[in-house]
Amino acid sequence: MASTTDIAPPGAPTPGTSREAPPAPHDPASLKVVPARHYARWAAAVAVIVLVTQFVHGLATNPVWEWGVFGDYVLSETIVQAVWVTLQLTAYATVLGFLLGTVLAFMRLSRSPVLQTVAWTYIWIFRSIPMIVQLVFWFNLSALYERLGLGVPFGPVFWSVDSNSIIGTMGAAVIGLTLHQAAYAAEIVRGGVIAVDDGQLEAAAALGIPRLRQIRRIVLPQAMRAILPTAGNEIIGLLKGTSVVYVMSIGELFYQVQVVYGRNGRVIPLLLVATAWYVVLTSLLSVAQYYVERRYARGANRTPPPTPLQRARRFARTLRAAAARRDQRVMPLKPLGDSR
């Protein structure tokens, strides 16, 4: 007679078999996951693609753009020389403007009320006057001061020279752009210096580090991380702002474009030439700003993110590795006995 222990209870699995328990009614694992469908996002993407496609199609097919005329003038000698003048104005105004702006920034941060007042007044005045007004004023400086000289203040003049012989048209443009840029550069530099913790200066003073070395070795390297983004934006704005000097008949890019289309009447393609050059120059400045910011970020980021060139190389290596693996999978096997 069989033992009662060998009889399985009703509903129990037989020996050697396993049966999973049915999921609980509210078990999250039993729920069907349905991805979210962003219909509005898809519709917006389709609308943007359609608009961009229409714009590109218009650029390619609209005869008013006159791409042939654009190709004839974009690298012409006149335009290239005008681009060089634009770069010169930008470089001079950037270097001199930020040098003067740095001095004004530290004057505002000084404990001397005289220096603070003079710096604040300068910034207030030159930020209040439009750039074109300043350029016209400096262009007509000889009408106000016919001669410039050196001598005793409020006394005799020992040496003087005609103002027009010192400050020509290009010099007046550089002075106007520099003084205008210095007012904005001063606030940019002051904001970066304020961003540095005061405790570091106190620690440097406690170690006996001279004040000038504190600024040069401690304050400015850390302040550059806050200065550079705004300074880069300001330099790009200055590059485009040099077009204002057309009122002084200086042969920069926009002025030369106006001269050319005033002669041949091809307004649209010549404006497109100026646009293309401004886009190229601002793009180069943006790339330079990226690498300068990356250099000064080394103290904050031990492992800075890869550059676009490094990302492109990494992506190319990934594609080559994937292609190599695919070739190995599809490589035919040699038949048995084939010694080749």
In short:
The protein has helices at residues 39-61, 67-73, 77-108, 113-128, 131-139, 141-144, 163-166, 169-194, 198-206, 211-241, 253-264, 267-296, 308-330, and strands at 147-151, 157-162. With 340 residues, it is mostly helical.
Q: Would you mind describing this structure in some detail?
A:
This is Amino acid ABC transporter permease. Keywords: Amino-acid transport, Cell membrane, Membrane, Transmembrane, Transmembrane helix, Transport. It comes from Streptomyces parvulus. Belongs to the binding-protein-dependent transport system permease family. Its main location: membrane. The chain has 340 residues and is mostly helical. 66% of the residues lie in helices and 3% in strands. The protein contains 13 helices and 2 strands; from the N terminus they run H-H-H-H-H-H-E-E-H-H-H-H-H-H-H. Strands 1-2 form a two-stranded antiparallel ribbon. A hairpin with a 5-residue loop joins strand 1 and strand 2. Helix 9 packs antiparallel against helix 10. It is flat and about 95 Å long. It starts with 38 loop residues before the first helix and ends in a 10-residue tail after the last helix.
